[in-house]
Amino acid sequence: HAMKHQIFLLSITLLLSLSLTSAFESGDEVKITVNKVSPYANPTESYRYYDLPFCKPKDAHEESQSIGEKFSGNRKMNSFYKSKFLQSINRQPICTTKLSKRDQEDFKNRIQLGYLFEMFVEDIAVGGYLGFIQDEKVFLSTHVHFKIWYDSISGDIVTAEIQTSDVDAIDVTNPQKDIEVQFYYSVKYMASHSGDKIHPNKGNDIYFAEELHWTSLLNAFVLTLSLALAVWLIITRIVRTDYRKIDLEGDRSNEEGRWKLIRIEAFKCPDQRNLLCAAVGSGVQLVLVILLIFLLGAMGMYYTHRGSLYTAGILLYAFTALISGLISARIYKYLGGKHWAFNIISTACLFPVLVFGAFFILNNIAWAFRLTSAVPFSGILFVIVMWALITLPLTIFGGLTGRMNTSESLVDVDEKLPKISKTIPALPWYNQPIFTVLIGGLLPFCAVYLELYYVFTSIWGHVIYAMWGMLFIVFVMMLNVTACTSIILTYFQLNALDYRWWWRSFLYGGSGAFYVFAYGIFFYVEKSDMFGFIQTIFFLGYSALFCAAIFFMLGAVSFLSSLAFVKYIYEKSKSY
Prior knowledge:
alpha+beta; elongated; 576 residues; 4-stranded antiparallel sheet
């Protein structure tokens, strides 16, 4: 009951996060918590704030955080920093601590690596560099200045930032002995007005400019339009011409309309039908989850509460499992599958097991290096319980519903097929499986490759992706490009008398994930400053999971598009 209650509260928090704000009155406490430190170039390689020898309260404890915050690597703890609303503070000491030679060396090394610290003013992330380098000397900043903007009408805190002063900086270039260091802070409140262009809850986050995305959008639109016209031409002109040019007894040497000669073979059930159906069902579910995440982002749901993006992803995946079970079961029955229970379990487990296996390895590495990105056991347990209590039952229900509401089946046709299928003629180089699969993934990648830079920079950097509406449009266009490309390639494949289109059509779209992964490696080497074993392992591991999701999504769209096209042209051919 407690777990169900927590799930309910998370759902309500997600749905109401846009409207919940904190209005302050003069003298109200403004909570300032400390979070983590990390190299600027390696944001995933983050450590707890108090892993460094900062002033630490005797009652230091971790603040209560949502599941999304835990998965995002936040480990907020209480601090000595105290502030009351509208009451500014000028250079107030907070503590004096002793830094050994080893502590000073530690600070020096981290400053040279460009380490940042992160704190929270209420729910607004703020941060700055641990120190600075000047005249080949390394200085540790000991004075933190908070600047907090508030809405002069509502009393809400709208944004905040931190500035580190060099006035009280300590030279740690060449530590010779233990030293006593005093840390200071100051706070200044400033009113903002409705006309001020300050992003709500922006803090030290950086956002992409809207103008940068129009080129990407135009590129995707032109490619989508071109391929849509090509598909329209195939369906309305070429295929209809094929109907009239050849019948089932026609000339096999004719290069046009040969697809009609393999009417029966084209509907022969594929090998590994259970795996194919589970992959398609999982892909459709992921497409729905991504579309809903983008819509919530366009509504501004992720600006108010930290970690809400992760929370949304977990909840949406759990509650959309009905779709994966429904789609998988319908296709499985259509393909004549008999082991429906195994199909449902395969669908419920395929993507989660893949994710959990990779996550288990990466999370253990994070624990070994004491990183904040290591998700605590409570968070992992929560996700497992969500899967067992929500995802699995909904997948079973969807599978049963899909099976009972699907009457069409290929099993009768498959049983009438001869034991020995028709020989597939030698294929020209442009119809070879490797070439067509590579082409099938290249076109969807071309539709979004300009936008990928912003996505990777947001995931692996300090820039926040705020153009959710733009991303939604580009994603939909990518799905359209995938569908059109698959239809075109399937038509040419059938016209070459190659009836092995079931798995091939899935790979036409799915292969786009390999291009995205290759771009990710290019981004890591050429476009980022990331370095070190830890960051490299995390980048490759989570990029592989990201691309696995793309593989299932584009593969599912590609397969369903080809299936609809093949059924359409062979049904139409009966009327000629």
